[in-house]
Design brief:
41% helix; 3 domains; 19 strands; Rossmann fold; 462 residues; binds coenzyme A; 16 helices; 18% strand; seven-stranded mixed sheet; elongated; alpha/beta
């Protein structure tokens, strides 16, 4: 049986209430985004004054639209919204997105309660109010009023903040993180984070779920949805500080709650808490492109001693270990190093390390059963060209795909400038997460380890 939100994300008929010819209005942008979507559906603009908008026949009310309506997008001033919702109930509309602001987030609780009463008496699922809508990049539908196309991929994002959600679309594109769906939840009058996590848990186009939350309405449901989700769930929870909590109250009208309780609850449910949006994307990139780490033993390969130590410290600070090399691996790597150095972990290939040293040492760590994850780093030291480092990683990634037994993540780190940038894009587009900071790479490896542990718990192995 299909999920209850299937018609919400894949509607066959959409009406836009408050569609306008005025190009500066949100109702105009919402209608246009659907029209320019690469998505097949019937579209109905609703405006009492117009006969057609953007070449599409217009109706005065949703009740006058022929046939059923899967999704209604509402963009009229708050005070008109209850009447529109009553019309939707009468029309037996399945789903509604209320873009309009002016409810509990500005202290207008009474108006929001009026909407709740209408919804409770209906079978409608309602997103918002005070939302941007959603973009479904997997199916090509843009059901939001905001500008920007998300690069298709397998991260689905839920954002309590509309503006941040919009920023995240652009950040994702820039970071080569592909999006399946991105949705703003606003005041969460009906459709809540837990409903969406449940949907994404069974959505074949979603591999990783990410959330920006300020508060959840039902803690138990939220935790259960994360617990049930057999995919990694990354959570950024804002409002940690006293002043931050005060800011959440005026943003979405919600109470931030005790941060310690949230922290413990997310962990207990098997979610991975992220410090900020950049960390969420760093980790999403790792989880979407790499296999989880089966344990916390990390092998580090560098061409510079300093970055090797920084990476080791960052790993150990984040619950990972950087063990001594086994004698078998030691011997393999000793053979390829110049006489002046001996293999250690971190393995310093020295400043003139070229393709072969990177490739052979990465392979040695892939083959080592005492290593669960590999970090390969390059400092633009002025000897070997950066392309030798990135070329070796790409070769190892291809090789790992050929060998079933090498289920180990490979993450990359770089310290350099312009000459590196195109190569960094090459790695990112091949699904290799690459980071400019030892801390960020360690936090991402930690997420791969946590996901490995979650999968083991799910199987009953630990
Ligand atoms: N049914 C359908 N359309 C109606 C209507 C009705 N009952 N009553 C009025 N309209 C039409 C209006 O005539 C207008 O069309 P027009 O341009 O052809 O005149 C259109 O609906 C919009 O109404 P208008 O009064 O012009 O409102 P607006 O477009 O200036 O503002 C919102 C409406 C919803 C955008 C605004 O109230 C709002 O909430 N803005 C903030 C939205 C936001 O930021 N959300 C959160 C994002 S994260």
């Amino acid at each position: 049986m299909s999920h209850i939100l299937e018609t919400f994300f894949k509607p066959k008929t959409i009406a836009v209430v408050g569609a306008s010819k005025n190009t500066t209005k949100i109702g105009h942008a919402a209608l246009k985004n659907i029209l320019i979507s690469d998505y097949e559906c019937k579209i109905y603009p609703i405006n009492p004054k117009e006969k057609e908008i953007l070449g599409v026949k217009c109706y005065k009310k949703v009740t006058q639209v022929p046939g059923h309506i899967d999704l209604v997008i509402v963009s009229v001033p708050a005070k008109i919204v209850p009447q529109i919702m009553r019309d939707c109930t009468q029309k037996k509309v399945k789903n509604v997105i209320i873009i309009s602001s002016g409810f509990s987030e500005v202290g207008n609780q009474e108006l929001e309660d009026e909407l709740k009463t209408i919804i409770e008496k209906s079978n409608m699922r309602v997103l918002g109010p005070n939302v941007m809508g959603y973009k479904n990049a997997s199916d090509g539908l843009d059901a939001s009023f905001v500008y920007g196309r998300a690069r298709e991929g397998n991260l689905s994002l839920i954002s309590q903040s509309g503006a941040l959600g919009i920023g995240m679309i652009h950040l994702a594109n820039h970071e080569f993180v592909g999006i399946s769906k991105i949705i703003g939840v606003g005041n969460k009058i009906d459709i809540d984070d837990d409903d969406l996590i449940d949907y994404f848990a069974q959505d074949p186009d979603t591999k990783v779920v990410g959330l920006y939350i300020e508060a959840v309405k039902d803690g138990r449901k939220f935790m259960n949805s994360i617990k049930k989700c057999k995919k990694p769930v990354l959570v950024v929870k804002a409002g940690k500080s006293k002043a931050g909590a005060r800011a959440t109250a005026s943003h979405t009208g919600s109470m931030a709650g005790s941060d310690k309780i949230y922290d413990a609850a997310i962990k207990q449910a098997g979610g991975i808490r992220c410090r900020d949006i950049v960390e969420l994307f760093d980790r999403a990139r790792a989880l979407a492109g790499q296999p989880p780490a089966q344990g916390n033993r990390i092998g580090i390969i560098t061409n510079g001693g300093g970055i090797g130590i920084l990476l080791t410290d960052a790993c150990e600070e984040n619950g990972l270990v950087v063990p001594k090399l086994s004698s078998k691996t030691y011997k393999k790597i000793d053979k390829i190093l110049p006489d002046i150095v001996k293999p250690n972990n971190p393995i310093d290939l020295t400043g003139d390390a070229g393709f072969y040293r990177y490739e052979a040492s990465t392979r040695a760590l892939l083959e080592d059963p005492n290593i669960d994850g590999i970090i390969v780093a390059s400092v633009h030291g002025g000897y070997a060209r950066p392309v030798e480092f990135t070329g070796a990683i790409l070769k190892m990634i291809r090789e790992r795909k050929l060998h079933e037994e090498f289920k180990k993540p490979i993450l990359a780190a770089w310290v350099g400038g312009k000459e590196f940038e195109d190569l960094v894009w090459d790695l990112k587009s091949a699904g290799v997460p690459i980071y400019p900071s030892s801390w960020r790479i360690a936090r991402s490896m930690m997420a791969l380890y946590l996901e490995g542990q979650r999968l083991k718990r799910e199987k009953g192995d630990i």
